[in-house]
Each structure stands twice: as C-alpha cells, then as structure tokens.
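If it is no trouble, can you show me the amino acids of a protein and the tokens describing how it folds?
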Amino acid sequence: MTRTALIMAACLAALASPAPAQNSPPNGTITSNDTASVSVSALTDSILRVRVVKTGSEAPEDASWAVSSAVRGKSVKVRRVPGGFQTGSLSVRIDPATLRLTVADLEGRTIVDDVSGSMSFEGSRFTLRKAMPTGEQYYGLGDKTGPFNRRGASYVNWTTDAWGFDRATDPIYKSIPFYIATGGPGGAYGLFLDNTWRSAFDFGHRDQNVLEISADGGPIDYYVVAGPTVADVVRRYTDLTGKAPLPPRWGLGYQQSRYSYMNATEVREIANRLRADRIPTDVIWLDIDFQDRNRPFSTNTKTFPDLKELARDVGKDGFKLVAITDLHIAHAPNEGYAPYDSGIAGDHFLKNPDGSLYVAPVWPGPSVFPDFTRKASRDWWGGLYKPFVDDGIAGFWNDMNEPAIFETPTKTMPLETVHRIDDDGFAPRTANHSEVHNVYGMENGRATYEGLLKLRPNVRPFVMTRAMFAGGQKFAVTWTGDNNSTWDHLKLAVQQMLNLGLSGVAWSGADIPGFIGGASPELATRWYEIAAFTPIYRGHAANDAPRAEPWIDGPEHLAIRRRYIGERYRLMPYLYAVAEQNARTGDPFMRPTFYDYPELAKAPCDQSMAFTLGRDLLVAPSPKPESTYAYNVCMPGPGWFDYWSGLPVLGERKPDAPFEVVRETPTLDRLPVFVRGGAIVPRQPLTQTTSVMPNGPLELHVYPGQDCSGQLYWDDGVSIRGDSLRQTVRCTLGKDGIMLHFDKREGSFRPWWKQIAVTVHGWTGPAKVRGVAGVETDAERRTVRFVIPDQKRASDFVLSRF
C-alpha cells in the first residue's frame, strides 16, 4: 500500500463517530457507517471530489490517468454546517446513517441527490444510485450512439472496435464516463467517474426515476462539477481533465483520405486533381497500404519508393501528409524489423500471465503490443516516429487502439493480459487488462503526442486516435470510426460530435460521406455541406466502397461541394478564433444550440440536427436530412441574419416567447446558416490551402445587435510558443448610426492583412464614415462597406447616415 493510501485508510478507520465535522480535512468531510466511508472534498467552490471505500476494504491509492496530481491537490476552505459543509457556491450534506449525499446551491435548490440505497457492493463490483428529476436531460459519454439525450437509455463503457456500427450499437470506440445533466432544479451539473474498469450508466432505463452508475471493479472516485449552466460545467470539467491544445491551423482545412491510396503515383494524381478542380485542401492521408505488409513504421518501397520526396513534392502545392501508425507491431523475430527488435530489446511489449509474450493477429498477422502504461515504453514508442518526421510527414493516425484483435469473439485481448504500471502517481505494479483496457488507446495517443513533442519541441503535434478515455483531448483529435453511408448516420454523426464536445473532446470528425457502403450523390453533397461547419473535415471511404472524392458524381455536385469547402476557408479567421477559445476555456468548437442559448432547450422545434459553430453561427439542417419537406428553425430571440444573403431574418414570434421561428424548405445547394445579431465575423479571401497568404484585406462582417463584438486571433499556425495577436472589436448602436471600436491589440505577431474591409449588414439609407473615403452602400443587400488600414491601437469609426 502506498503512503497516501495508508494515511487515508488510517483517517477513515479512526472515525468512531458519524459526525462529519470530526477528523475532517479543511476542504471537506469524511463520514462513515457500517457499509462504507465517504470522503467529499472541495477542489474549488464548484468542483467536488467524492471517494468511497467499502468498510473492511483497503483505500485505493490517490492516482489517476485522467486528472493530474496538481489538479487533484487543489482545495478551498469550507464552512462547517450541520451534516456537512458549504463552499462559496455549494451546500454539501451527508446523512450519517445512510451515507446519502445531497449537493445543492446556496439557495437550497438540489443539484444532485442520492436515492435510498444509494450504494451497493457485490464483490469487487459497485453501484451508485442518483435521483433523476422529472424534466432533467442527460448528455455526454463521448461518441455513444442512441438518442442525443441519454435519458431512458443505458450504456457500457468498454472501448470496442465497432465496425459498421448503427444507432443501437453499444459499447463503441471511446469510454468517457462523464455526463452532463441539465434542466434540473439546481441547474446543470456534470459527473465524472474516474474509474478505468468496465463501467455502466443507466439513465432511467431500468427505473425511470433512478440513475445508476456501476463498475466491475476499481475505485469509487468521482467528481461532481456544478454549473449552473452547461457551459460552466464543460469549462470546469476541462479544468479537471485538461484542455485540448490548439491544433496546427492546417488541421482546420479540408483533408482527403481513402483506405487506401495505393501508391505514390495515386497520391500525386489526387493532389493534382484537387488543385486542378480548385478544391481547397490541406491534407492527404496515407492508410495502411503505404506500409510494407501492413507493418507500422515501415514503407512499401515498391509502391512508395521515396516517401521524403513525395512529402516534398506535394508540399510544394501546400499539402501535408498524415500517415497511419497502428499500435500492433508485427511479431517478426530475426527479420530485421526495427520496431520489433528494439521493442524486444527494451522489454516494451505486453505479456501473458505466465510471462510469455502476448501475440495475437491484427493487420500484419501475428502481432505484439506496446505496454503504454510504462513511461519507458511510451518514450520508446515516441522515438519510432523520428524517420517519418525527418521525411516530412506532418501528422500521425493511431487506429485500432481499443485495442482491436482479430479472430476472437471479444474483439480485444484477454482480460488476464499483464500490463506494468509505473507512472502518473501510481505505485509501480502489474495490472490485468480489465483495469487498463479503457485507458490503453488514450495512452497510445499520449505516447505519440509526447514523442512528437520531443522530436519537434515547438511544433504542434497533430495526432488522430480512434479510442480514448476521459482527458484524451490533451493528446489527440478523433473521429467517429467506421460509419455507414446512410442518412441516419449523417444525423448520428452530428449528435456524436456534439456529445464529444460536451465530453471535453472538441476536435472530432466523421468520415465523409460515410466509410462503409457508398453514398448517393445527394447524401454525399449534403454531408460535405454540413461537415464544412464541423471540427475535423475529412473525406474518407473504405477500400471496397465506391470512390468518394469531391468530384465523384459530376460537375453539378462538385460545384456545390467546392463552394462549401471554400466557404470553410473563407471563414478561417473566425474558425481559428473559436479554436483558440476552446484551447483557452474548453468551450466546444461545435455546440448544441442550448449551450450558448439555454432558452432553446424548450423551443418547439426539432433541434436534433441544429448546432452552433462558436456562439455566433447557427447551422440548421433539416432534422430529417433525407426529407425535402419544410421544417421549422428556432432562433434565440429576434435579430438574426441569413449567412448567405446577409439580410435580416424575418421569423414568427409569439408574445413573450424567448425565440422566433423561421420556416425552411430544403434545397440541395443550400444549407441554412444564420448569424447572431451582434456578431462581428472575420473572414478572408479564398485560398487553396492554409499555408498560402490570402490576397486582399481581412473582412469584418458586422451584424448589428446587442452585445456586439467579435474576436481576432492569429499566429503562425504551427508554433507552440511564439508571437500571437488577439484583438476584440465591438460595435455600439446609436440613434443615427453605429460606432465600430477596436480594442488595443495584444501581442506582437504581424498578420498577413494590411487593410480591413468592413461590411455592415442590415443598413438602409445613405452612409458616411468620418475620415474614410470610398464608403459604398448596396440597397438590395442592405449593406455598407468601407476599407480602413489595419488597426493595432485602440480606435473608433463612426458610421452615420448624415
């Protein structure tokens, strides 16, 4: 037992009285009865850690794969009250007889509450039970399928290779045991179970009034993250488990992939066609067939004779190459396969219980598997990337890391497989796969991310992973796996990405237009349109599926797809500012409508496909994307604008309703997108790649309304440490005009723009700007446009009608 565990066990055993105020730490309370001991501590005024130890059991060590020791060590002093304590925001009470935990706000509104029989034990298995208030809704759990709102369903957390999954498939690729509840009496809250074993969440499936949380083993160690808003919860949850780093700017561009581009000639042909068809693109992906016999960290020199030359050649046209590196190393003794030889020499592979090497079939045939819970093995893995980094490969793709195993009904390795833990505050020890399975893929992504950081210390790593545990957003972006080319999967992809964002994983994508099966032209075009406003924008299809590059299906569909891809590039200054906001605050890139506009939670529209991109853009596809029938879009109050025309939206609004309703009729070439009145949206001239400097001024589109503001953020797009700029732009509405105000710019980075072209929407009548010549009005579009020099210092421009 570790020293920390001994101290906690001694404290729990020393409690002879159920009174929680005795022998309690300054930031919480410990309460015991014949069943268990419950420790509740306040990390902040709004984040509580709850640890439960069954009576007679050894207290677990204070260690975590998801929450760092520095974060776990945070605390605030609390005020003692009968039965518990208070923080600056929360009231905590524990019934000493039943150990029922109740958390409320300081006005007495219940946030989360246990029910009778709040915990039970069966061997190493435990179950917790929470009350489910009527009207409370539940989100999160990563990329789980099923309904967007989790209420009434149940889920198992066990990372699984879910090829060809559908809406009823569970478990799936990721295990993120965190949910957000909203709509309860005390506002939103989140609950994160910090336990890597197989766990389950039942949101009223078995008992409509009870939320059950269970796990097959491991510690009862969970965090209650109070709101009161969903945004508060997400920001605080990412304070716990980590913020996603700002990706390289090229990672926001369009990315073209297939399983697989079979040789260097085909890659060059794809690159040439993308440029010839004027399809803005930043990345081409290399799937497993670029390798020698599917062996990671190898290259088929017959089909890809010079990877460095290929990267250099396509790089001249602005393309980056991202290459797959699955975690299964071919079992190839005496064959000169360096990853295997160095892994054996360093003792870096998993073992069977008898100490022999664990060998199982995957893509290369018999394979061995790195022991990623060992720091030394992660360091070894990270070093394997050096030849590829030296060849100019820009990013890497960790697939099959649930881990997926062939020729076994469980799809993964035996639970008795032995891992060696020696990092992250854990005492050095062995553990079986039951404990490590759910965190294995995340530690694979971590090893890749940290290895790339060592090889290029000031270059942002780009790593994509399929499997993930809570906190995995610190190391990698992700995608929704092997989806299907169906209309339902298009809808499911939107909901999966939204729930991933609420689970801290802001950077996700879904294969366009579905990995398996082949999409109709109409489905593919609609998918390209919607995906233009999602975090990761990647076209990808299976080797036995029809080709799915943008030009497939003819010039009419290509024109639409190219326009939406281009629109993403025009929006790059806005997208990049939203990306930086995520890195700083944890706010998702892509958000459910109720994230920034809680009033929409009760709006009378079907919002199962609607989402916002940042706060200012509302994307509103049909909730039945295959349908051509009209549907309603609900907007939070008046004052919104149509993104495409720039004109104010005229919707219907009932008296005292906090929203208005717009009727939309689907057409193939138009995706409804709206802009918040009060938004200032930066855009840029179209480029074919993010590595090219735009030719012309930065555009600022001003949509007058309340809270009128926008953000500029820019840097070199690749460096971790370097100059940047940040600037807030505001507008104030007056009786006879608008004042546009530039705050003083922060940072010393010199941007590409020398001028700023301002377009004010919703304007009627004549216009002039004091000290600015060439003010242009457009009565039909209701705009006024003028060009000013770049504004580094605080400055004002007054737009008036006389």
Notes: The chain has a mean pLDDT of 95. The first helix runs from residue 3 to 13.
